[in-house]
Amino acid sequence: MGFYDTNLTIFAYMSKLANEMGAINLSQGFPDFDVDSTLISYVEDAMRKGFNQYAPMPGLPSLRSALSQRHFNDYGVTYHPDTEITITPGATQAIQSVIASTVKPGDEVLLFAPAYDCYAPMVKASGGIPVWAALNPADFTLDHQSFSDRVSDKTKLVIINNPHNPCGSLWSEGDVELLIELQQTYGFYILADEVYEKICFADGGFRSFCTYDALKDALFLVYSFGKTFHATGWKIGYVLAPEPLMSKLRAFYQFAVFSVNTPMQHALARYVAEADYKKISVMYLKKQAFFEEAMKKTAFRALPTYGSYFQLFSYEGISDKNDVDMAEWLTREVGVATIPVSVFYPKRRDDIRHLRFCFAKGDEVLSAAADKLYHAG
Ligand SMILES: Cc1ncc(COP(=O)(O)O)c(C=O)c1O
Known about the structure:
The protein is an alpha/beta fold. Helix content is about 40%, strand content about 15%. It folds into two domains: about 5-35 and about 280-375, Alpha-Beta Complex (Aspartate Aminotransferase, domain 1), CATH 3.90.1150.10; about 50-275, Type I PLP-dependent aspartate aminotransferase-like (Major domain) (Aspartate Aminotransferase, domain 2, 3-Layer(aba) Sandwich). It contains 14 helices and 13 strands. Strand 5 (about 155-160), helix 7 and strand 6 (about 190-195) form a beta-alpha-beta unit.
């Protein structure tokens, strides 16, 4: 039985298969190293101090203030802690709140294929219609023609993921110029999923969409503490938006969620104010370089990654299998689990020859995976 015979997401399927086969799991996007023990001690401290009851609906004021300050330090843009920041149970729920509060039945929502897998089902759940524009197949940069052709006055929301999962690509200044031009023509909202903001390898670092004044009034920004502090199991994140957009979002959110885990918020309020984000970026920069170097001895060809903890590798010189079959074969026969890229497209495709590798793993795990892949062909 293969992936297409199950009702599982590819992530659940590959992780299950990796467990069954005892394979090294570079498929699902979670780090295998620990959360900073200081942050853990802050959570324990908050629990012992009795911060165990409901937090206020938009999140703890101290956490929202710390985030407002942090965002200003990083990007020079102010989001007001009272009215423009809301804490959410993970970026996933933030994305759902943005979609549910902006999209009405029949509205079109523009997505770029390949895309992170939760966007389209959430759009459909709100009665919206996903409309797909393309990224260029060679390097996964924005296809300007496709974007311009697919957007129209029916477009209510454009969803952008930058840095990009699964491709590790980034929006260029030219891409953003086109976005600004189209937004000013059609007036759509923008959801920028920037959960990998702190994992960016571009010269000059990451540039958030909020730094473009022309976009700010239409922009929702989504972040994940799970990604930034390698604590994906905590499922806590936040959304930033100007006050008129945020009050729409909270009108939905107050009933859909109401309140997020209180002790985690106390701990994060302390930690965000003091955390060394540069150290996190440097750690991932080293990991990415380490993995790409280790993979050089294999027949897999690295595509450049500019952000996220993922890198695509082409196996064109190794096999003609489609990527789902190749990922399955690698897990069963070689002992390394990855994610096929075709599953991030709206329709099944047999022409993709790339796999996504997660390098948020210990160096010894990455080395062992490269050793096994050396024997793959
Ligand atoms: C692009 C992107 N957005 C959102 C999420 C979800 O983040 P969270 O775990 O905080 O819900 C992920 C997780 O893999 C992701 O890759």
